[in-house]
Amino acid sequence: MSDATTLQRLADLLVGFGANVQRGQIVAVSSEIGKEPLTRAVATSAYRHGASYVEVTYSDIHVRHARIEFGSDEALETVPAWFGERILRLGDARAARIALTGPVEPGLMEDLDPARVGRDKSQALREAGTVVNERTTNWTIGPCPTPGWAALVHPDLEPEAALAKLWEEIVHVCRLDEDDPVAAWRERMATLVGVTERLTAARFDAIHFEGPGTDLTVGLLPSSRWISAAFETADGIPHAPNLPSEEVFTTPDPARADGVVRSTKPLLVGGATIRGLTVRFEGGRAVAIDAEQGADTLREMTRHDEGGARLGELALVDRDGRIGPLGTVFYDTLLDENAASHIALGRGFDFAVGPDDVERVNDSLIHIDFMIGGDDVAVTGITAAGERVPVLRGGAWQL
Q: How far is it, in rounded angstroms, from Cα 359 to Cα 377?
């Protein structure tokens, strides 16, 4: 288990570097019941950094289980308007936002109809994408180890040892084992910014993924530019939206994705576990979604709206980060997506394209990342003239 010092160091990293909370800001913290110690440490750190007010919102997965089990079909479609309005008001107030990830009770939803889990819209707020694209809040997402999560990740260990192991890994991937974690993160992000500059300068028309079970070509928009997780708000506040983050990403052309792709890691979506995922794309649309487990959940989520079955993100991850080399499957998108290259179904990022292409960016309620990369997946850039340029081979940058 973590000691108070480790807990506070993680909280300080999320508050001071991740969200970069400013003096006088309102801070909204999204958490779950079961994550109280880190949540309180984050709130304490936010006040130490000068927050004027810290609002903590706890969700309860058991309440959501009841909604899916006993709620009507209409109930699964119902999300009160004020939930979205709250997000927009946080943007208007130029607030900071911090969210804690990691499942508290993985497997709780396994006794439910997977299709109903996917139809539940309580996890999708279009307004969340609005404030991200308008860059009105400085925000971050960080991991919060829990006993339930530790048991899922390290099932062969006794509960106390599993939790200690998970904390050890979180400390490592968040660079808290460095004397100066912030300096370590700035060095890594400088490296990734250099990668984004080279990728953007290459002006690829498409990216091709080739590997076991994967042969997928994803088209880019004419003004698609590559970005790392070194963000800045519209008002000039720098922040790191994901901690840890090892990716570079862009917004693809939602009308151009063709081929078959196999997920290289399982993922947890809406409380449901999806394993052995294979998706076939034609003309930019996911026309077939199959999996060893959980396919119905993902299929239903992509039916929330027209953009749900199209891509909104394409991200590349090299082997020099700290997550992939551990070889651990974390069953948490924040960590697993930063261990391997990935794509995301649903909403895209307006700020990753030029003004002429904003109207072409995919729009959706959802944004679901799934991992498709690995050392055995070759990534190749294709120019408008058809030239093929190696980008990643064996997990190493070739540019």
A: 32
CATH topology of domain 4-144: Thermophilic metalloprotease-like (3.40.1830)
Q: Exposed, middle or buried, 63 (CB in 10 Å: 0-12/13-18/19+)?
A: exposed
Domains of the chain, residue spans: 4-144, 194-397
pLDDT digits (tens, 9 = 90+) for 380-399: 999 999 999 999 999 999 99
Fill in the amino acid letter for 42: V
Cα R_g (the chain), whole angstroms: 20
pLDDT at residue 174 greater than cutoff 80: yes
Question: Measuring CA to CA, which residue among 346, 299, 285, 365 is closest to residue 118?
Answer: 299
| Cα 208 to Cα 206: distance, rounded to the nearest angstrom | 7
pLDDT confidence of residue 270: 80
260 and 278 in contact (C-beta within 8 Å)? yes
pLDDT tens string 20-31: 999 999 999 999
Bridge pairing between strands 231-232 and 238-239 = antiparallel
pTM given for the model:
0.94
